[in-house]
């Protein structure tokens, strides 16, 4: 997913034009230090949300120690819109020594608003941060390379790859970004941030591999391949294909995993029926009619012939037919 980050230097931004150009997230500056409030920040966030894009908000740090970091965090928290999807510490100020404690103090405070990230470049990571900072995802700034260097983390949520971009709706140069393997921030139905746990993503990836042969690496990272597989599954289930594994998506998965008897002699369950229709290669409409019954019978006959099973060729997806649909 493509994104940009903007500040008062960009003045008024036409968010609708940015969206039309194919950008999916915008990160707006809100504050700097303990006194500066970006006069465009709150409106930029509001416009980003109203256009249906993922909205981030960032603070440009000026602190040199933990106490000042806490002051700046509280200042940012007091001025940041509460409906942002993620928040960022922009750590690129002149400093000295290990700054991990100060950065963690800042991030721990602002993470009460929304999931938090740290923005940094490879040189600053090596000079001023230790491995404890990897508690929070990374927005890496690294220009002029085919892929970013990511010390300590090894992966990233966002990569800022240029500071000289040209984007419709933005006057002058603008920073260009792309989401990375750890970009798990989505808008839910209430426009609040959703950051799925690695455990739930792992379960999701395993289910998608089993149900629709998604061929995902089960790594707990909700990257582009996982999002695309979720969208594919949602399309099959007749759901809004937004790539977000919300309640409806999991309801569909759980209904299929319940192995409910389905067929001509049983009540029909739409999600289970849709999956059965996909599995036997017939039209997918969630209605178990005569066409679906015929295809199920063909499947049962073929499994008996090819694998030596003894399924009843009755067009009913019972326990043994369910087993075979996943096994073969």
From TrEMBL:
SUPFAM superfamilies referenced in this protein's UniProt entry, alphabetically: (Trans)glycosidases (SSF51445), PGBD-like (SSF47090)
Domain Peptidoglycan binding-like: from-to ranges: 200-253, 283-325
Protein name: GH25 family lysozyme
Family to which this protein belongs: Belongs to the glycosyl hydrolase 25 family.
Record's keyword terms, sorted: Glycosidase, Hydrolase
Pfam family of the protein (one): Glyco_hydro_25
UniProt source species: Clostridium neuense
InterPro entries, A to Z: GH, Glyco_hydro_25, Glyco_hydro_fam25_subgr, Peptidoglycan-bd-like, PGBD-like_sf, PGBDSf
